[in-house]
Amino acid sequence: MTNPIKPGVRSDAGAAAVCPEGDWTLSHYVHLSRLIDTLSLNEACPVDLRQLGRLDTAGAALLVRALGRRRLIQAVEDCAELPAEQRDLLLTLSSVLEKEEGSVPDRRRQVPGLAAIVQLGRSVENGVRQSIGLLSFIGLLLVSACRAQAWRPAPLVNQIEQTGLRAIPIIVVLTFAVGTVVAFLGASVLVEFGATIYIVDLIGYAMLREFGVLLAAIVLAGRTASAFTVQLGSMKANEELDAMRAQGLDPVARLVVPRLIALVLVLPLLSFIATLAGLAGGAVVAVFVLDISLPQFLAMLNEIPPENYWVGLLKAPLFALVIAAIGCREGLKAGASAQSVGEHTTSSVVQSIFAVILLDAVAALFFMEVGW
Amino acid sequence: MSIEVRDIQKRFGRFTAVDGVNLHFPEGKLTALLGPSGSGKTTLLRMIAGLEQADSGMVLFNGEDTTHVHVSRRGVGFVFQHYALFKHMTVFDNVAFGLTVKPRRERPAKAEIENRVHRLLQLVQLEWTANRYPSQLSGGQRQRIALARALATEPRVLLLDEPFGALDAKVRTELRRWLRRLHDEIHVTSIFVTHDQEEAVDVADKIVIMNHGRIEQEGSPEEVYDNPASPFVFDFLGQVNRFYGHIRQGQAEIGDWTLPSPEHAEVANAPAVAYVRPHELEVHPDSDPATGVSLAATLADITSLGATIRLELVAPESQEPIYSELSKEAFVQLNIQTGDTVWLRPKKARVFLQPRQRAAQAA
């Protein structure tokens, strides 16, 4: 069923109107698009859509291009006979195309490689914004922590159990395994120099100074930051946070600060346990594989200056603060949908692991410079 | 307590959610904020509650500026669409929550709290659920508990955000009747948000219809239903037929109808739309131009809606199908069948200019 009239635009020199006529459909697209490029359509005169045959999205987009959005909308409103679906199509398309005109840069003029630079700039800006947001959130938490409302024993004990006690098995297993790996790694190099005995120093320094606290922090980042995000995010999605506020409670003081305090108390303890487990792992390898006796192992360990342990432990509260802040902040930022909670959970794990490792690197540099 | 908002505005990025709204909510009345999703009604409610800060404008409680008062000091009870009950607390603790968390100076004695919670649970007819957890209750029961929780602190204002939105149709109807009775009992100034026009008409003393962050119309349910101020309100409140034609000097010419439209007397000639409700559209087997039975249509379909009959008609003056509703007896008297040509007369019609002309006229 094709329209007998050849699709095109009638615009007689004397006529008072521009009349698109015939079928404006995809099958005539090439013809029509050439036509409107060659035709200069009088800006001032009104548009008459009555002769228009069939219309699809391609044709409608051409009409928007040919006539401009404003004129087309006017024409649509003037033409009461226009079928409703054509009217809707034209109006929808003209509003959509207008938005794109403003936001999409002309691809033909783009400098190669520009997109990558733009992307880089955006992510740097985003990173800076995130860091500023996180810092101000930490500030808010510290202020809230000073209020009595935040120090209620029940939720605090509950959080310590959730985040601390229940994390012990996984942390012990993990650091024990890393301890054995470090021992093997050291042995494979040191054995060539006949200096196998120094793996005790290797394990000792590594565990006391770095790995104990770092591994505990990474486990907490994966295990607890995500849990915080999900808990707070689902409460937010469920409007429970608003309900608390409506009842006169501050969700930050009631929910976030206990989590923060719990984590700050728990992470040094977990680091201690992690360090012990790591040393045990190393000791097992040393004693059973490398033929170093246990007293010998302990004696060597005893000679490592204790500052190394304090340097490691000093980082724990800092890591805990950052992990708790990131986890809770992402939870509070989550939107109302399950998908949003999921996205923010991923983001909180990635961010907190990243932040912990970055902070650890900075701390290592700092302690090296000050000579501790 | 009466509530007033003045020139209140709220933007989210580039999107204007509430655009300079002025409203007065009379004391002790139940007001419905009605509108499609995205019309700004929930944002307005949250600003009244203090859960959202207005960009500009004022909120007044009893004539006092409350714009910057914290939500916990405003004395509002808020009921959320998804109940927002605390999952890990029993029903009793949920209802008592607002009282138990008060600072010691303001907190009632333990016996008094217990007393009050039981009275509230009686009020919502769910006393037997006191020791259960929210997950053990049905949606309708949870929402009633949420209402009891909101009432526990004896709020001066009760705000409900689509309270029945998550419930099925039957429970909705029951609960809104129940809310109406409850309101008649306690008489606290209430505002509730809904996108369901039937719900608003059924429950509210006053209806405010919003669209695109602005107020389209406010008034009693009868007023807005009988005299819609704009095509939007007409469309939004119930079904409506649209007939396209022209206005010439105060006369709307829709096909062979001539409808008086004195409010457009100064319009020389402009496209117009006549809005006619289905139950106000008469169908006749023969034409009678003298009495205005003059618009021809083809009967396309006949549907029985229980007590009434709905006729689906097709006429060149409307691009959509036209509906007319009439009683069974009237339909039998007409003696018409699908495919017949019938003649229409509007008992009541409202004529509006088409949108662009309206804008030009306003300018």
Automatic annotation (TrEMBL), chain B:
Pfam families according to UniProt: ABC_tran (PF00005), CysA_C_terminal (PF17850), TOBE_3 (PF12857)
CDD domains named in the record: ABC_CysA_sulfate_importer
GO-annotated cellular components: ATP-binding cassette (ABC) transporter complex
Domain ABC transporter residue range list: 3-237
SUPFAM superfamilies linked: MOP-like, P-loop containing nucleoside triphosphate hydrolases
Highest taxon, organism lineage: Bacteria
Entry keyword Nucleotide-binding: yes
InterPro entries: AAA+_ATPase (IPR003593), ABC_SmlMolc_Importer (IPR050093), ABC_transporter-like_ATP-bd (IPR003439), ABC_transporter-like_CS (IPR017871), CysA_C (IPR041193), Mo/tungstate-bd_C_term_dom (IPR008995), P-loop_NTPase (IPR027417), Sulph_transpt1 (IPR005666)
Entry keyword annotation includes Nucleus: no
Single GO molecular function: ATP hydrolysis activity
Keywords: ATP-binding, Cell membrane, Membrane, Nucleotide-binding, Sulfate transport, Translocase, Transport
Record PANTHER family: SPERMIDINE/PUTRESCINE IMPORT ATP-BINDING PROTEIN POTA, SPERMIDINE_PUTRESCINE IMPORT ATP-BINDING PROTEIN POTA
Full protein name: Sulfate ABC transporter ATP-binding protein
